[in-house]
Design a protein that fits this description.
- It contains 11 helices and 16 strands.
- By secondary structure, it is of the alpha+beta class.
- The protein folds into 3 domains: 14-114, Alpha-Beta Plaits (2-Layer Sandwich), CATH 3.30.70.3340; 119-189 and 251-346, 2-Layer Sandwich (Sulfite Reductase Hemoprotein, domain 1); 193-247, Alpha-Beta Plaits (2-Layer Sandwich).
- It has a 5-stranded antiparallel β-sheet. A 5-stranded mixed β-sheet has the order 7-9-10-15-16, with helices on one face.
- Helix 4 (140-149) packs across helix 9 (289-305).
- The longest helix has 17 residues, at 289-305.
- The protein is globular and about 75 Å long.
- The termini are far apart.
- The relative contact order is 0.09.
Length: 355
């Protein structure tokens, strides 16, 4: 169907929002090259050139900031900009002579240009305390603290390979932390506290039981409430999502876990899941000093020892996980062993055990 009536249902057709140079060369790009940190060049088969300037940005932006970005886009690139999946702002220019002036104006206001090539990518993260009702950690606060500390790695492109760090504020993992080079994960460590009166008045018991992925919740007819089998509970917080009477937040026991070695790329080696490196770091707002220190240690270890083109997990696989824990100065504890009651296929408990 070519003639479709415009409605207010759903998003507008993406092709209608594309710059003319992209519409004209859709599917006909010949090659691209990395000009310098933060700047990419795409060349079409007919010789058209499109330049991308990538600016690191927080996920949460004020209206004033968005208007400023829009004004810059009008000034330098005919209003063409986009936001990436890792919260960068990208300005799309056809006039190469305007690139340096754009970068100078952006960086004069404290916004970094970089994140392309073999560099640290902008951190992707979930909602955290600012919005999510079941978050074990903050998101924006930790990401701001980590990026402030690793700022130079975003600005340069001489790392062994690309480095992606992600954060999810609980193990439901709304972010891509299950397959990142370094992953920051918020964890609950205590079973939800049952408020029988609130459960009986505000919750639908069948929905609460069905929300538990491990079958840890069962009805308690005597109290018109539920019971929780602590041995089966994985502290995910799904039950709290459907029932406010099962509060899982615990300021004294919630905190951070660090995972390493994951990736979604299929280059050189297949995609892989991240694996646990540091089981627990307590929440330390506002700057999360211990978490930032741990992340920097892991990043510097990889930068100093990985071979060119070697992602974090590929480096660990080459040297061995035993050597990695030794080099990182991390203890290997029982928390690193996959012994969850429902994960029999992945038990690492034979005489061939390797970590």
């Amino acid at each position: 169907m070519t003639n479709v009536a415009k409605t207010d249902i759903g998003p507008p057709l993406y092709k209608d929002q594309l710059p003319e140079i992209i519409k004209n060369n859709y599917g006909q790009w010949k090659y691209h090259e990395h000009v310098k940190p933060g700047v990419l060049k795409h060349v079409a088969e007919n010789g058209d050139e499109l330049y991308t300037v990538r600016v690191g940005s927080p996920r949460l932006l004020s209206v004033e900031t968005l208007r400023w970005f829009a004004d810059l886009a009008d000034k330098y690139c005919d209003g063409h900009l986009r936001f990436t999946s890792r919260h960068n702002v990208e300005f799309l220019l056809t006039d190469a002579s305007k690139i340096d002036a754009l970068i100078e104006e952006v960086e004069a206001e404290g916004w970094p240009v970089g994140g392309t090539g073999n560099s640290l990518k902008n951190l992707i993260h979930t909602q955290g305390w600012i919005h999510c009702h079941s978050a074990a950690i903050d998101a924006s606060g930790i990401v701001k603290s980590v990026m402030d500390d690793l700022y130079d790695y975003f600005k340069k492109d001489d790392l062994p390979a690309k480095l992606k760090i992600s954060l999810a504020c609980c193990l439901n993992m709304c972010g891509a932390v299950h397959c990142s080079d370094i992953a920051i994960l918020g964890i609950h460590r205590t079973v939800p506290k049952i408020n029988d009166e609130e459960v009986s008045k505000a919750c639908e018991i069948p929905n609460v039981v069905a929300s538990c992925p491990t079958g840890a919740i069962r009805p308690n007819p005597k109290k018109k409430s539920v019971t929780i089998n602590e041995e089966k509970c994985m502290y995910c917080g799904n039950c709290f999502t459907v029932c406010p009477g099962l509060k899982i937040m615990d300021p004294d026991n919630d905190g951070v876990a660090i995972f390493v070695g994951g990736k979604t790329s299929n280059a050189r080696s297949g995609p892989r899941f991240s694996r646990l490196a540091i089981p627990f770091i307590p929440n330390e707002p506002p700057r999360w000093d211990s978490t930032v220190k741990a992340i920097r240690n892991l990043v510097e270890l990889w930068v100093e020892n990985a071979r060119p083109g070697e992602r974090y997990g590929e480096w660990i696989e080459r040297i061995g996980w035993e050597k990695f824990f030794d080099m990182a100065g991390l203890p290997f504890t029982d928390k690193h062993i996959d012994d969850f009651i429902f994960s029999v296929p992945t038990f690492r408990s034979t005489t061939q055990f390797k970590y």
